[in-house]
Amino acid sequence: MDKTEILISKWRAEGIDMVYPLLFRFRTSVVGEGWLAGVEFCGAAVVTKEASGEYIAHGLKPGGVAGVGSTLTEAYLAYREDVQTVLYDMAGDAPFLAFRERVLEFFHSADAWGEAKFDQGRSMVVAGKVESSLPLEPRPELAVRVAELELRSKNNPVLPAGESLRVQLAA
């Protein structure tokens, strides 16, 4: 048995049929008391296809949230919605600088399980064992940006809340 077959056997023993190391870029705006922020994640999630057929998107960067769906896309969209909810909750009545620090901490809150699964999934993508029509990104750059924007400026480069940009598989 080669390394790839061993990983698949291990995942199936855990009740997982496949692991997708997902990369995404997500931009949104968040309004707080007296401030407007633009937030951009160049993030990662681990989407598992469970033996039951259900997909679960486990947040890696940002971590601590998950989404469930009957397809990979549904799971990712549910995860993205949870990320948006967390951002709104963080804004609350916090001043902008406190919000920014909370977002940075949230982004860097990956767990060891998610990091291990993401790396294993990348190995599977490179080995050609993951079937997907998503484009591949060989060396992902994960980052977060939080900028305070002017509330009344007509020239704000604010994207509509929850706008999602390209989603890819890490290779």
Summarize the structure.
The chain is an alpha+beta fold. It is built from four helices and seven strands, in the order H-E-E-E-E-H-H-H-E-E-E. It has helices spanning 3-13, 72-91, 96-107, 112-126, and strands at 16-32, 35-50, 55-61, 63-69, 136-137, 143-149, 163-170.
Question: Explain this structure to me?
Answer:
This protein is an alpha+beta fold and 171 residues long. The chain has one domain. The protein is built from four helices and seven strands, in the order αββββαααβββ. A hairpin with a 1-residue loop joins β3 and β4. The radius of gyration is 17 Å and the shape is elongated. 32% of the residues are buried.
What's the structural blueprint in terms of helices and strands?
Blueprint: H1 3-13, E1 16-32, E2 35-50, E3 55-61, E4 63-69, H2 72-91, H3 96-107, H4 112-126, E5 136-137, E6 143-149, E7 163-170
Parallel strand pairs: 5-7
Antiparallel strand pairs: 1-2, 1-7, 2-3, 2-6, 3-4
Number of helices: 4
Oligomeric assembly: single chain
| Secondary-structure element order, N to C | HEEEEHHHEEE
Radius of gyration: 17 Å
**Low-confidence segments:** 156-162
Mean pLDDT: 84
Which class best fits the helix and strand makeup? alpha+beta
Number of strands: 7
Shape: elongated
Distance between the termini: 22 Å
Query: How much helix is in the residues?
Result: 25-40%
Largest sheet: 7 strands, mixed
For the record, the count of structural domains works out to 1
Strand content: 35-45%
